[in-house]
Description:
There is one protein chain. It contains 5 helices and no strands. It is mainly alpha-helical. The chain has one domain.
Amino acid sequence: MDSITKVENEKKKEFLLRYRIATRKIESLEEQRESLIRTMRSAKAVRYSDMPHGNKQSDLSDYIVKLDEMINAITNTLAVKIQLQLEIEGNIVNMEDGLECDILRKHYIELKSFEEIAEELQYTYRHIIRMHSSALEHFKINGSC
């Protein structure tokens, strides 16, 4: 394998590893969004009497607006991360060789080790490593490689 191929394969690995990073970010953002939604619901549940209380209702309204803005920002970021995941999965699905596609999917999407993949597919660990290398060579990012 020449140095250009190694560099290209490293770029492809980095691209594929973005799936794992996106998955972690999505999980974190979903937790944050759920927490903010619970906070907003509890803030809205406060009852107001007809008696004047100063500026507390305005402060609460401002707080709810800020919570809503944060929820919208999280939702937008989630959409971007999910789109990235779909792009990566689409690039894997478009591969010609089914075994190479399977190895990349299991390793980068399902987060399985090469040992687990070898056992599952009933190949040797060494063969899975060779097939992974071959899969990276054949993998195309958005059809550009």
